Amino acid sequence: MTDLVEKTHDLLEALEERPPTARTKEEAAPLVDTLRAVVRRHDHRYYVEDTPVIPDAEYDRLYRALETLEAEFPALQTPDSPTQRVGGEPIDAFEKHEHPEPLLSLSNAFDEGDLRDWYERCQRQLADRYGAVEPTLVAELKIDGLAVALTYEQGQLAVAATRGNGSVGENITHNIRTVHRIPLRIPAGADNGRQPPERIEVRGEVFMRKSEFEALNDRLRADGQSPFANPRNAAAGSLRQLDPSVTAERPLSFFAFATGPISGPSPDTHTEKLKMLDGLGFPMEAHTQRFEDLSSLTSFCEHWGSHRDDLDYEIDGVVVKIDRHDYRRELGTIADAPRWAIAYKFPAREATTTLTDILVNVGRTGAVNPEAVLEPVQVGGVTVSQATLHNEDYIAERDIRIGDTVVVKRAGDVIPQVVRAVAEARTGEETPWHFPDTCPACGEELVRLPEEADYYCMNSECPAQFKRLVEHFVSRDAMDIEGLGEKLAHRLVEEGLIRRLPDLYRITIDELTALEGFAEKSAQNLVEAIDASKTQPLRRLLFALGIRHVGKTVAEDLVAEFETIDDLAAADADCLLTIDGVGPTIAESVSDWFLLPENQDLIAELKAVGVNTERLPHEAPSDEGADLPLEGLTIVITGSLPGRTRREASRALEEAGASVTSSVSGNTDVLVVGETPGSKLQEAEAEGVRIVRMEDEEDFERFLADG
Ligand code: IVH
Q: What per-residue string of b and e applies to 64-98 under the rule 16 or more CB within 10 Å gives b?
């Protein structure tokens, strides 16, 4: 298998260096042959063996390159090319099922421009018959599972089949019968009293919820079996089991999204059809939405691109469909995809690369975590060269070795992680990895506590821990010191300017300008920013101290109960336990922290340098919830605001309950406009976002108070 992965990477590299469109026919001919052979082998791994060795995104790039070259040089096309087939091959082990109407695939859009081109093409084609029309669209989340066709006769589930190659699938009726979420029977009168059609083929996606997938993998690991790489593979593997009793134990879900042939009258629009399927008792995805025009649909696509992690199932895009069936008929189908629908694909979040080393990283609490060093690779538009490996068990359970080809995933704002090793790509040169015995920063022996996944360096003076603590203390969610990022924080520790946290507040302009590359002005700004952080609310200080288990929410819960840090320090674990949101682990961690003499000294010193250690008026419990005037509003700022820096304005808006984001989207509630606004103003106007202009400081104060 190694050669297949290697060959794929060589090909991708060659394509990157010289894209298909830049090639001559002579150059293209051997490349087309190689691409075809490689795509075919991947198809086999994917469709027949259910164990792909490369991420879908890499496959897509190969496939598209092949398609492009064949389109450019039609003479190179052959009828047996993988591009001429609708999908995968049915497996011999199952009975074949010939679909009465093919299950089509979709062409892809990767950005707003592609969507617009597609829509305008549809409009042009419809113009001959219907004149200038703006077809209504339906947007559905594209569930990452596998398509099935369920035929009901006289209300009974008669045949269920996979998509297979689009024309012929596998008969998996026995397995589908075990999926609880798929009705075996459509009761008479289900659809608002209407008689269900004599014969109807319902199409939809079988998938596995993320939570159920994790639980299944935990079970498989516990039984010594290999876990599935992702929910899609788990769903496919579960559905194509020869023994239905195995499928029955797998937590499969289903959403209906279309129909095949229906006897008797059938609805005129897709919206009506989805309503009918819902009425007949099929599970429907809840976020489907109808759009009268393209621009609001684009916001929907963008919204789900950045919120896909909010769902308990994987989606890889949005399927956009023209609603009216007469328009669909007019538009027709080209090759294996309809012209009336398109898949807006999100950027891929997985890629494969080589893991060259594993280092351990010491955190501010002393937790020591393994981190993968990777050959740099593009994931979701960003180059990734490091990724988390979580802990010792994570690596052992997945048998991840140094030198392995690994799948790296980057989801939303989450740190990139190594998901799995591609065992099939091993050469025998890979070496297993063992957790080190001692802290790489201070040499202290590492300890793994019972019931904990992490190792700890227990040395409270470990320099690595202290650097991390300073980095955390100054960070945006903690004391929020402008201009003091991770690198500078580390440097100030390395240069000996900060030995204990309160030293931060003693740094002088002279000390900073003595450092290489520090100008007078930036030194002055930094000292001012540090000084300004002395008046941060108590909850921020509590979070900044880096007490184990005290995150932002716990810090808020504690401040709701205690007016000063001294009151909190005086509370014992039992007293802390009576607070809402505080369990035994937190209570013990907080009271232990305040019992240590060095921490008591730390608080005294922070007070002495002038850091606020008392609850501020707006932190009082009565200020929470209903009393926050901007609670729940998502706000964007443009232009300069009277009397406040951008950061001060953001902070004030956040203190009043708003969440402040940097760009206008479908989620924006208010655009706050100052002097000389930027392009966000037009964007907000186009989105119909509420616009609040700030002529003077009073306008801002009024808005903060009343919303
Ligand atoms: S419609 C002609 N709707 O995506 C219409 N497909 O790339 C073809 N899929 O094989 C399918 N969610 O497995 C459609 N809401 C949705 C979908 C969806 C997921 C999958 C389906 C199909 C593939 C097409």
A: ebbbbbbeebeebeeeebbbebbbbebbeebeebe
